[in-house]
Amino acid sequence: xxxxxxxxxxxxPCLFIxxxxxxxxxxxxxxxxxxxxxGLIECLFYLYFVQTKQRLQSITKPERLLTKxxxxxxxRQCINTIKxxxxxxxxxxxxxxxxTHPSIHQIRRQNIAQWLAWAFWHDHLEHVQKExxxxxxxxxxxxxxxxxxxxxFSDGLNPDVECIRLNLDPVNAVHRPLLAYVGIYLITQCxxxxxxxxxxxxxxxxxxxxxxxGPIQLLDHLYQxxxxxxxxxxxxxxxxxxxxxTDGQSKTPIVFVHGIGVGVLSYAEWISLLLSRLSDRPIFxxxxxxxxxxxxxxxxxxxxxxxxxxxxxxxxxxxxAVYVSHSLGTAVTSWIIKLAxxxxxxxxxxxxxxxxxxxxxxxxNFVHRLPRQLIEYLMYYGASREMYISHYISRHFQWFESICxxxxxxxxxxxxxxxxxxxxxxxxxxxxxxxxxxxxxxxTYVMKGLEHAMFLINRKWKNTIIHQIETISxxxx
Length: 477
Hints:
Elements: H1 2-55, H2 68-79, H3 85-91, E1 93-95, H4 109-121, H5 125-130, H6 132-149, E2 161-163, H7 178-199, E3 203-204, H8 214-226, E4 239-243, E5 254-257, H9 268-277, E6 283-287, H10 302-315, E7 321-326, H11 329-339, E8 344-350, H12 361-368, H13 374-384, H14 387-396, H15 399-402, H16 411-414, E9 417-422, H17 430-439, E10 443-447, H18 459-476
Parallel strand pairs: 5-6, 5-7, 7-8, 8-9, 9-10
Antiparallel strand pairs: 1-2, 3-4, 4-6
Keywords: Membrane, Transmembrane, Transmembrane helix
Organism: Choanephora cucurbitarum
Transmembrane segments: 33-50, 178-198, 254-275
């Protein structure tokens, strides 16, 4: 009797434990298999990263070189807006050992010649000096700067000093796992479907050549095929979202161009606020996938981008728009101001990188500065060392195309323009830009205490910016 009772008590726990043990071992085995497979995929992706990083090192040149007349005009525009020549000159150079800036006395004549050869010819000094006319022009620039600022460079070259030359410097990148890109893809697609399309009523342009690249392109192709989203239209260079006005009236549209990050997704809450205040206006969201961590290395030129923005407006029956842009997006606005000024009804720029680009701040702070504080580390690893963002900045970003001088802007646009600068911006030289814009009477705001892009988490400044967009837009109807 006792034996039978003991057996039952022993058997009942076993009936529960054995299936649980089996399920645990099976799940563990599957987890080990999945982890091993994914680990192998990540190893292969690292090899892909190494090979792609090497491929992206190839030097690229602008679609069109500057003419002698254009170089001279650009040079004069630059030196006419330099207030402190010594600080300006020192900013473009750094010691290769610790990336600190040298004093101007350590910068010699050949050092400044190296920088000018890159800035105005987009090439190495030795290549520029092979052409007699170019060599004479380069010498004229140095003498002109020396006379203008009453400073004489010492002869020779200081080999310890390097100058910033974006499209000639290496493409620096830090590996990040494929899982990070897959995560960005999945979150972006959910946001696009649920947020942009279902909740806010945006329509995507399905005719873009490169919205995603690398291995993620395969995942995107599978997604497009699964839901029959592939477009048979001629492929465009840019991708965008369009939302028609709720009241059906024809008002001046707003075109928003995002900055570096993860694309429109970064601005989700701000876009929601914008729509709540300006639902009666047509809105375009232009995407720049090559700076949105989408593994895209095919980059349209400034001319191609401007042409397709014009076509985008015409497709929906608009001739002009109010361009709202943030950070790198202001470079796109600068292209449009210079290449398609007739499409500009007004502009609102936030954390603009397009003003005073001949100063070192944007190039040095984003590409060459070694991080020392938490926010700098976040910027360094989260953006500037992402391979495809780094590739764009180091191979396709042309400072002379993106720079915007006030004289480039038509008078009617100047009257419908607002600029917002972050006081503690670690990328843009906000103080210099503020004084430059103030001298020319541009409506400029300094967002006190804010870092670059921190307006996105500041309710007061988000509302102020949207109020300015409302004001400028209403004047253009």
